[in-house]
Design a protein that fits this description.
alpha+beta; two-stranded antiparallel sheet
């Protein structure tokens, strides 16, 4: 699309109109955002608020319904504006919600400035917009724009914003952080996680009739990458469950997640056939503000309801150099090594944080025996009690015994990601109740490192590194002198099951 393609222009006009409506109006910007999550500044209540299910198998169909009713509201709003301004032909008759195909361009030997698909689209980065579609003279306020701000916890909810360095013409996140290859390679929609077994799946864990708001330890592959990574990379309100739907880019991000679901189905994969999934009722509001209660059964197929996608193959992933470990079960019974915070360990948003695990006995011998081909057991690396005050504006990479200077996500020491989407205690009241554990099955990786001579006997070191290093407060790029975000964890352990 051009910067101000008619689809983006009319989206901006509709968002501006929706933002003017009272928060009690189901077709207003605030009300629609609250269906996903409610910031503490909102005092209105409604049974439809804070519905979004994360970490469960309703994640995809619920967000598909959310998108569909939102699109109807936007289209009706465009029709309303066009009628007031006597615009013909009516632009609403051909308007559809675009998708942001951030994985369209895989890395090549070109300079970084050529990687355009992972940059926030231009229409979301400019404070001003044109007065007509495809215009170039930017003269009016742009409702799609959110400023970059680094704010303290107490001021986080005062103004919708994004993290520093987001509104640039360069990539929000590196390709390796949003490559959907692993998710698209799964053949099972959802599975049940147990203590000793984890079935990797495209969608998140089976929850039967339960639609919990947030289950951070049960993400499926698609929800982990690229969904959570994009939320983390944009940060600000987009980095929280409560505020993300108030960032206009949220809807184009989720449109792409929905497209990846259609693409996955086009590869002869199948949705669940359990009636507890097919017939569960959701709560949405249509363009007339009327309550609707659709079920997943109404939103299925490669081309569901009345829409389809331009491409089901572009930007659907390329094989990574190193495929990260599979999701891990809950931490095991035998602790091989651990490290505790004091009482919490802060993670630097500017560079690596290294953690040395203290062995409980001969950890080297234990790791050798655990990964012995004759009687292998599962090695689990867990970062416990992950949380942050405000979204850090980046996911974090985890490495096992990676030497300094070799902390490359495409290298052999890479373990996986820590996402802080949903882990922000912005109100300062959640304490450890707002934290979660992140576990990785490192059995095969430890075996490979030993076979390659890359894991010598001795101390075990874990490096946790921001994917996109954040600017230091007070630097030229910083919008304020606010303190840096303070992501943290409680402890790290290496255990067996």
């Amino acid at each position: 699309m051009s910067d101000w393609d008619p689809a983006l222009y009319w989206y901006a006009r509709a968002v501006g109109r929706m933002q003017q409506r009272p928060a009690t109006d189901p077709t207003s910007w605030v009300f629609q955002g609250c269906i996903h999550g409610v910031p503490p500044t909102i005092t209105e209540t409604n049974a439809a608020f804070s519905q979004c299910p994360h970490g469960g198998w309703f994640f995809l169909p619920w967000h598909r319904g959310y998108l569909w009713y939102f699109e109807r509201i936007v289209r009706a709003t465009i029709k309303e504006i066009a009628a007031e301004e006597n615009i013909t032909p009516d632009p609403s008759t051909s308007w559809a919600l675009p998708y942001w195909d951030y994985a369209l361009n895989a890395p090549a030997s070109r300079p970084l400035e050529d990687f355009t698909s992972r940059a926030l689209p231009a229409a979301f980065r400019s404070p001003m917009m044109p007065s007509e579609p495809d215009g170039t003279d930017l003269t009016i306020d742009n409702p799609l724009y959110l400023p970059e701000m680094q704010v303290p916890q107490a001021d986080f909810w005062k103004t919708p914003h994004r993290s520093l360095k987001t509104n640039s013409a360069f990539e929000v996140l590196p390709y390796k952080d949003i490559n959907p290859f692993v998710a698209m390679s799964q053949t099972v929609f959802s599975a049940t996680h147990s203590r000793r077994t984890v079935q990797p799946s495209f969608g998140s864990e089976i929850t039967y009739t339960s639609m919990e708001h947030f289950r951070p330890d049960k993400f499926g592959e698609l929800e982990s990458v690229p969904h959570n990574q994009v939320h983390d990379g944009i940060g600000g309100w987009m980095g929280t469950v409560e505020g993300s739907a108030r960032d206009p880019i949220f809807w184009l991000h989720h449109s792409n997640i929905d497209r990846l679901w259609s693409s996955w189905l086009s590869r002869d994969n199948r949705n669940p056939d359990d009636t507890s999934w097919l017939d569960h009722k959701f709560m949405f509001f249509d363009e007339n503000g009327q309550l609707q209660e659709p079920t997943p059964r109404e939103f299925l197929g490669v081309d569901p309801l009345d829409y389809g996608y331009e491409s089901l193959t572009d930007g659907t992933g390329t094989r990574p150099v190193v495929v990260p470990p599979a999701p891990a079960p809950a931490p095991g019974e035998r602790v091989l090594a651990s490290a505790a915070g004091n009482p919490r360990q802060l993670l630097s948003v500017h560079g690596p944080t290294e953690v040395s695990l203290e062995p409980a006995g001969d950890v080297s011998e234990a790791m050798r025996s655990m990964t012995a081909r004759s009687a292998p057991q599962t090695l689990i690396l867990t970062v416990h009690n992950v949380r942050t005050d405000v979204p850090p504006g980046t996911p974090f990479h985890v490495f096992l015994n990676g030497p300094s200077g070799e902390l490359d996500p495409e290298g052999p020491y890479f373990v996986g990601w820590i996402s802080f989407f949903g882990a922000a205690d912005v109100g300062g009241t959640a304490h450890d109740h707002g934290s979660h554990d992140v576990s990785f099955d490192v059995t095969d990786q430890v075996q490979r490192l030993r076979e390659q001579g890359l894991l010598p006997d001795g101390p075990v070191t874990i490096s946790i590194v921001p994917s996109v290093s954040q600017p230091v407060a007070g630097a030229a790029e910083a919008a304020t002198e606010a303190p840096a975000p303070q992501p943290s964890f409680g402890s790290v352990s290496l255990t067996t099951v």
